Amino acid sequence: MSLNQVPSGHAAVIREIHAGEHLLQRMVALGLRRGRKVFVIRRANYHGPLHVRVGMTELMIRRTDADSVEVAVDP
Amino acid sequence: MKRVAIVGMPNTGKSTFFNRLTGSNARVANWPGITVDIQVAKIPLDGGTAEIVDLPGIYSLHGSSDDEMVVCRFLEREPVNLCVVLLHAAQLDRQLTLALQLKALKLPMLVLLNMADEAETLGVRIDIAKLSAALGSPVRLISAKYGEGFDVARQSIESLVDEHPVAARAAIPSHSAGTACLGCSACTTDALSNGNGRVDALDRELDRIFRSAVNAPESLPEHLTARLDRVLLHPWFGLPLFFTTVFLLFELVYRIGLPMQDWMAWALDRLKLDLLAPALAPAPALLRSFLLEGVYDGLGTVLSFLPIIVIFFVVMAVVEDSGYLARAAFLMDALMAKLGLDGRAFVIQLMGYGCNVPAILGTRVMRSRAMRLLTMLIVPFSLCSARLQVFVFLVGAIFTAWAAPIVLFSLYVASFAVAILTALIWQKRYTSREPMLLELPPYRLPTPAHLLRQAWHVSEHFMRRASGFIVGGVVAIWVLTHFPTGVPAAGPETLAGRLALLLSPIFKPIGIGPLLSITLLFGFVAKEIVIGALAVIYGSGQAHLAGVLAKNLDWAQAYSFMLFTLIYTPCLSTVAAVRQESGSLRFTLFAIGWSLALAWFTSFLFYQGIRVLA
Q1: Which residues of A touch B (CB under 8 A)?
Q2: Which of B282, B322, B458, B464 is the most exposed place for a label (fewest CB within 10 A)?
Q3: Ordered structural domains, chain B, with CATH
Q4: What pLDDT score does B422 carry?
């Protein structure tokens, strides 16, 4: 499943990121990496972005970009 | 001279640290091949002088964003004695990457862990000795905002510069392909195609160091930011709160800024009429006119923007530093993404409704050059207060009291429409390479000193860079309207009048006669002088102007004129601001050309449409 499918208020662990070079670099720099736990805080209305927390960093990520992050639900 | 470069990720308080370290004697420097403004300051250090260079905030040395390229190029070409790396102490889980990347460059390095206060509140414990050993360079905890640990950091800089008297360039890892770079594009593509090999190796090292040296809580305590976000980013109340906030900020800027602009104009006028005019009385009339209406008015134009720019930037710095600007991006993203922009562009665009000049200068909060240029293209369509004066006067003169508010409202709609149209048309040309992945930093209170410094820095920069351009433009218009001598100024016999006659085939189809088109020339300098110019050109006093206009113009001509005035170049100062911020004359000319073309077509469609219907 993708990060975009994780319901708000839930966490998941990143398995793989299927993104292009630029996006992947930025994701890694902001802490979105394989094995990291991501917590989905909220979503903006009208197909707006996701508000997530990874480690100590909170960030916004567009839904299309969240689709490229493959995750497994945190047990 | 010794040179110290400061490197760090965005939102780590890098400029706060820089300002504290250097006082306020920073200037903007340009290096060959580097297009971004870089702040530089000289400070006494270790018995000599050292140049402190504040490099743009970057996420990675292997990235490909505009700022990342700039930092790579700088470290590659310019020798430094020391590289100070600023990291957010609470976010070492990802920020250590940057320190590790810099370590690979084999430059003398000092790692400063900033925002030690925030880290402590969040329960993050850091073993400085272990971290220092792992990174192979000294590590210090500081709080740049409150000054804790600052003296120690400064001493460390001093002794490290002392230890490395010979400046060095970054040691560039060599590649199989034979290209030498810091990993800008060639080597990262290489690494990524190797199955994330290089990225993963660095990540593993990061995780190892982080686990051994940092103790961070698994889950964060319920903090103030989370509570504020629950309200400010609420799915239903978030947007209305955002609009209210922007509206209040707008009010704040213009309730204070506009009266101050008026006072400034008044004071400049008094100085001109009571002091300069009598002093210059013995001079020949033409020279007097040149000095007063050319040079002095040109300088006055630049100065009259000073109060509004200062206030705008104080407010903008509050919004930016508090972390709310990033929230604006979050709230508005669904809408703005369709225009190729983000929510920050929206805030800037709205601020442009007061005055375009500070709004253009404000585009620097966006780090992607493409997005900055696209925003600069649409900001000038915001119906600013100067244009509003012209419209209020014309609408009052031509339209009935019943129609007037509707006409005024329709101009605001037109202003939004052309901005959106422009963004839609040009977003492909100015596509941001920067991924839309934005940090939402915790809410922070900016310090007053920082706000003032920020405002002063931008205004001073604008005054210095734009004044030559603006004065030159004002003088050029003065020449057009005052030569040849011996005829009434700005009349049909002057150069301006002849130019208007020459251009009449262009302006006739949109209902603007030669007399009226001379005013457009004045309007290019500033919209504030359009009404005055109309009075001069029609040979009537300001008091009778409304009646004269009503006699000479029908409503379709008047509306067409207002549409043109709304859409074509707002004023010379905005052009100067665009040129300064884009750093490109070509882009500036394109922006002027595009707005002129759009203005003409809009007026043409309107005027000919009405002629057909009537």
Answers
A1: 21-31, 33-34, 41-49, 51, 53-62, 65
A2: B282
A3: 2-215 (3.40.50.300)
A4: 94
